[in-house]
Amino acid sequence: MQKTTRNTTSLAVLVLMLAPALSHAVDSVSTNVAPLAPTVKPAPAPLHPFPAVKADEYKEADVWGRIRTGYAIPDIDNELVTKHVKWYSTRPDYIARTSARASRYLFHVVQELEKRNMPTELALLPIIESAFNPQAYSKANAAGMWQFVPGTGKDFNLKQDMFKDERRGVLASTDAALSYLQRLYGMFGDWPLALAAYNWGEGNVQRAIKKNQALGKPTDYESLYEHMPAETREYVPKLQAVKNIIANPAQYHVSLPVIDNTPYFTTVDKTSDIDLTIAAQLAELSVEEFKALNPQFNRPVITGGEQTKILLPQENAEKFHLNLSQWGRALSTWTTHKITGAKDSIASLASRFGTTPEVIRQANNIPAATRLKAGSTILVPKISTSVHNDIAEHVVDNAVMAFEAERAGRRGGRAEKQTNAQRIKGKVAELKTRVSGRNAKTAANETSRYKRRGG
Q1: Which DSSP category does 454 fall into?
Q2: Model confidence, pTM
Q3: Which pLDDT does position 406 carry in this prediction?
Q4: Quick check: helix, strand or coil at residue 334?
Q5: Which of 63, 151, 277, 443 suits a disulfide with 435, CB 3.0-4.6 Å?
Q6: Do 208 and 80 share a structural domain?
Q7: What is the pLDDT of residue 60?
Q8: Residues 148 and 209 grouped into a single domain
Q9: CB 147 within 8 A of CB 101
């Protein structure tokens, strides 16, 4: 049996070796011999440009390599690309800071792109939008690493209320951004135009296309430059520049930090209201690192129903569950209070709830020199350790805050009178020191005049 197999194998090898010669011999046969019928090759099966692959099927050592393997947007090459390649490649500190932030989120973004069969270089878009800073906020009120303006955020069901802004949330904003990009690609059938619409708005891109069509001009991205604002004109070239650097960092003398091709975080269910600082403590994380993974929470307490998730690094999630089981104390120290009228001043509220005005202003992001209007809902400390009720969901959903400027020269508040009295007392002491070399009568007259003026 083994001998027969070896002979068969040898014969097959010999046939393969002689195949080119046999083919040449056939081509040299006399024309009297009928030619062979041409071989009809079947059309190749259509290749999917970005196949969905499970994370554990990848051989790449880091996420950068994984991104490179899924590039699928046609390249552009122009002066703007060259300009931005130079800008990024000559700023190693910027690359390092951005990569450090991106290391928390890139694996998740790439994984979500692959699930949707989308080009993986779109994972680099937050570098252009926000330098991967989920707390980024623009003059146009765009927020988060994907930079959603409020209206577009609402279109994609990103919750924006007093307690939470999901435009900043890692999971929600990434899902919304990829859905938006998919929708734009469906509208334009072209990734550069879809990206232009992401930055400029689909209506503006559609109008620019119609203008060029009316003039008999091409309607590709670069052909629409003359109609675009500078930011949109440079948007895709910026992405192309980053894409070039990630594809071959050595060529541009850039050193990319390794980002492991493994999940950075996992989700933890929130079972009840919990202070942000307590959650960080239970997870054994700094508050800064906790906020980097959970940037959507606007207040010092994390509220919401059972769908509210907390993101933690895997090993810290295990610590969180262990420490939570041994906690044995209240998880939240905050509740809400609704302002009913002018008597609910910040100073009076601080006195009633055993805290300071500064704490109330900071917890509620109340600007200086403003007071709360009636109907506003604010966070205040729980005054009884026996109060364990969570903040009601309807309160979370409907809570609003409105401010107005403090009235200049208003003398009604006790705290303000005390402040004036203290200021006068301090000024009197200062005047006494300054006039120590004068006679007592002169000092008394100057002090009396200052008191009459009210400071």
Answers
A1: T
A2: 0.77
A3: 82
A4: strand
A5: 443
A6: yes
A7: 75
A8: yes
A9: no
Cα separation, 323 vs 21, whole angstroms: 76
- Nearest C-alpha neighbor of 163 from the set 284, 270, 304, 266: 304
Q: Which ranges constitute the DSSP H helices of 299-392?
A: 314-325, 346-352, 357-364
The answer to whether the beta carbons of residues 128 and 156 sit under 8 Å apart is: no
Which pLDDT does position 367 carry in this prediction? 93
- Say what the alpha-carbon torsion angle 222, 225, 226, 232 is, to the nearest 10 degrees: 170
CATH code of residue 377: 3.10.350.10
Q: Pick out the chain residues at pLDDT < 70.
A: 1-59, 385-388, 408-455
Q: Give the per-residue pLDDT at 50.
A: 39
| Domain harbouring 130, CATH code | 1.10.530.10
Domain count, the chain: 3
Cβ-based burial of 416 (10 A; exposed 0-12, middle 13-18, buried ≥19) = middle
Provide DSSP, 75-116: P--SHHHHHHHHHHHT-HHHHHHHHHHHTTTHHHHHHHHHHT
C-alpha 251, offset from chain centre: 29
Work out the angle between the directed axes of helices 79-89 and 235-247 (0-180°, nearest 10): 60
Q: Which residues are catalytic?
A: 129
pLDDT in tens, 287-320: 999 999 999 999 999 998 878 999 999 999 999 9
What token pair was written down for 282? 């239970």
Q: Which domain holds residue 385?
A: 334-398
Claim to verify: residue 92 and residue 224 sit in the same structural domain: yes
Using the structure block, give the residue that is written with the tokens 């990848």. Answer: 58
Distances (CA, A) of 130 to 4, 125, 142, 200: 68, 9, 10, 16
Q: Which residues, other chains included, contact 382 with Cβ-Cβ below 8 Å and sequence gap of 6+?
A: 330, 332, 333, 334, 335
